[in-house]
Amino acid sequence: MKIGIITLYGEDNYGNKLQNYALKKILEKFSQDVETIKLDLIENKTIKYYCNKFTIKLFFRYIFLKVIGLNRKIKNINRKKTMKEFSNQNLNVKGYRLTKEEFNSLNVIYDKLVIGSDQVWNHNFVRKMLDWYFVIFSPKDKNIAYSASFGIDEIEDELKDQYIKGLNNMSYISVREEQGAKIVKDLIKKDVPVLVDPTMLLSIEEWNKIIKSPKHLPKNKYILTYFLGNYSSERKENIYNFAKKNNIDVINLARLEYKKYYAKSPGEFIWYIKNASIIITDSFHGTVFSLLYKVPFYTMNREDKTQSMSSRIDTLLKMFNFEERLINDNKFDMNFNCNFNNVNVVLNSEKKRSFDYLSKAFELKENYIEN
Q1: Cys staple from 304: which of 30, 229, 237, 259, with CB 3.0 to 4.6 Å?
Q2: Model pTM?
Q3: Domain count, the chain
Q4: Close Cβ partners of 58 (under 8 Å, ≥ 6 residues apart)
């Protein structure tokens, strides 16, 4: 059985890479032939189209943005390089250059297509590619969604018909957050399971296999910050005051302004989490790995409200009874007290639910039992 993974693909996000890696490893328990599909979409635009669109005004705006973005682009080169190396080594990437009309050519290549995890159904990211992430080109019996995320609270009215069509094209659907299950119920009147992100299905021993010791080793105990949204001066001041009070350092991971810690690999990302004294993050996967490695943490709201992630974080923290570690403002009293005694119990239960779901989706005669 040949399995293709369809997920968001890029070279700049740790969570994206690590959930892709985890999903591939899990699917290899069902088949040894698993590929991550990387699509290079050919849009078939004519020269006349671009001439009409590319006005003089847009031309100068393009040049201006290129100039001010040059510094950022240079800093991104090494980061993308490390991410790409991880992809090449671990994700078994298969690239295709296709037009939308050619998507169905994949039907003769793959026996099953697994969509997820990540925010594959967030129309803020994939509006023009919804048919791809709902695999409209593929027969329904081939299509399985594992822990797919909407990452939004509701679907825009003008897109609801497209979502209904797409969801009805899935033979099995599971989602990552409770709000996602509600969206599916509202649109196609089906109850679907909320399953954990694939990163939570791998054991610590499995994650330790890809850990990479970083070049810049911390000399002292440290707070690790990992923010994908804004990092305001007020938030930063509070964190540094806490560090000073407790005589520990601060490492700000994956921020352009902290070049030394910007271009780290996914393996180094896990190393920094595993060895931190406490983690402050606004990231879903930052929270996930804090739980997996049982490192005290706080998950903060996104200051950029356009990057809402409340539903998936709420679902995750509620599942593990850590709602008190969610912070909705910048003024809070931090402490190192986290009771992780119940984490393994919840994880084992959720792993069983997930493997039962996948066993049924792949039509195995008996439920898969994890070794």
Answers
A1: 229
A2: 0.90
A3: 2
A4: none
**What pLDDT score does 349 carry?**
97
- CA–CA dist 240, 232 (Å, integer): 12
Q: Positive or negative CA dihedral for 324, 329, 335, 338?
A: positive
pLDDT of residue 73: 63
CATH of the domain at 230: 3.40.50.360
Domain that holds residue 78: 2-201+348-361
Backbone Cα Rg of the chain: 21
CA distance 24 to 211: 17
* pLDDT tens-digit series, residues 125-145: 999 999 999 999 999 999 999
List the helix and strand counts (H, then E) for the chain.
14, 11
Sheet holding 143-148, edge to edge: 93-98, 33-41, 2-6, 112-115, 143-148, 172-175
Please tell me the predicted confidence (pLDDT) of residue 259. Answer: 87
pLDDT reading at 38 higher than 50: yes
For residues 185 and 85, membership in a common domain is answered with yes
**Residue 115 forms beta bridges with which residues?**
6, 145
pLDDT for 308 equals 53
336 & 287 share domain: yes
pLDDT digits (tens, 9 = 90+) for 44-84: 655 544 454 555 556 665 565 565 565 566 667 888 899 99
Residue 270 within any structural domain of the chain: yes
Closest by Cα among 350, 369, 222, 345 to 295: 222
50 and 183 housed in the same domain: yes
249: helix, strand or coil: strand
Pair 154, 58 in one domain = yes
